[in-house]
């Protein structure tokens, strides 16, 4: 509802701006004798509008009061000293200038509301998103939800559950040597080889996209996880041999840490990850 109101306010403000521009053009074209006079006041009106856009409506109102006071003084001077008559034309800019300020304030408010709505929706999307946008893998939020269920199943049915954490060795140095597109492709390649190294009932996650870290929940014990680890290292060597003839001249070395779930030692998914990361540090 609020978003509809913001869009309506924005559309109305821009429509009024077009109408104002049309009225100002018609008015100035209909009185060529006062062309320079109207140009000066039009510039003053737009100057006040620009200041209002970049500050706030209070500053615009103050400037409009000063404009009206200065315009009134100028009109009084012409009437008393030069003997000019006061006509309807003397009131036009007293109406157009505050009107342009009001339209500008409406545009500013509409843009601000739309920006707030956009920021709110982006934040909501980040908090609810369960997929990594680059690899289409489940992210850390999805991992925490799934791990809670898998840990409960493991404890209830006495099924072994092992978490593998995989990262790329020397990643900080590698990303300085390759372009952003190559870096994205590298992450995707590692994700693919990880996906093909596990069974269909196991789950693969992108735990950290900035410093690529993958997590694998495997329904197997620690010895069974070693089979997956050996398979990952073999696939990595094959990937390096395949990439040797391409523009990607870096060698990918995987760091892998594994820990088997123990109800006595692990109570939350975050502790599960922390334990696997500690094992990751020993893989040098």
UniProtKB/TrEMBL annotation:
InterPro entries recorded: GGDEF_dom, Nucleotide_cyclase, Rev_trsase/Diguanyl_cyclase
Q: Name the domain of life.
A: Bacteria
Coiled coil location: 107-134, 222-249
- Transmembrane spans: 12-29, 35-54, 61-79, 91-110
Q: Name one GO molecular function term.
A: diguanylate cyclase activity
Keyword Membrane (UniProt):
yes
EC number(s): the record gives 2.7.7.65
GGDEF domain segment(s): 129-280
Sorted keywords for this record are:
Coiled coil, Membrane, Nucleotidyltransferase, Transferase, Transmembrane, Transmembrane helix
UniProt name for this protein: Diguanylate cyclase
Q: What is the scientific name of the source organism?
A: Cohnella rhizosphaerae
């Amino acid at each position: 509802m609020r978003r509809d109101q913001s869009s309506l306010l924005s559309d109305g403000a821009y429509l009024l701006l077009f109408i104002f521009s049309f009225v100002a053009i018609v008015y100035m074209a209909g009185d060529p004798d006062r062309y320079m006079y109207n140009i000066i006041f039009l510039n003053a009106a737009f100057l006040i509008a620009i200041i209002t856009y970049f500050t706030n409506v209070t500053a615009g109102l103050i400037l409009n009061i000063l404009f009206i006071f200065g315009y009134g003084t100028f009109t009084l001077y012409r009437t008393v000293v030069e003997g000019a008559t006061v006509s309807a034309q003397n009131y036009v800019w007293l109406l157009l200038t505050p009107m342009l300020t009001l339209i500008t304030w409406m545009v500013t408010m509409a843009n601000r509301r739309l920006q707030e709505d956009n920021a709110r929706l982006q934040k909501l999307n980040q908090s609810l998103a369960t997929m990594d946008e680059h690899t289409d893998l489940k992210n850390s939020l999805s991992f925490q939800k799934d791990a809670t269920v898998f840990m409960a199943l493991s404890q209830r049915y006495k099924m072994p559950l092992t978490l593998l954490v995989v990262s790329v060795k020397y990643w900080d140095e590698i990303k300085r040597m390759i372009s952003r597109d190559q870096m994205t492709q590298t992450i995707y390649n590692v994700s693919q080889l990880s996906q093909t190294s596990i069974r269909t009932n196991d789950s693969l996650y992108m735990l950290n996209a900035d410093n690529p870290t993958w997590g694998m929940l495997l329904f197997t014990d620690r010895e069974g996880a070693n089979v997956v680890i050996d398979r990952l290292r073999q696939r990595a060597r094959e990937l390096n041999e395949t990439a040797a003839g391409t523009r990607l001249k870096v060698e990918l070395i995987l760091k892998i840490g594994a820990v088997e779930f123990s109800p006595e030692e692990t109570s939350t998914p975050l502790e599960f990850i922390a334990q696997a990361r500690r094992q990751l540090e020993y893989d040098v």
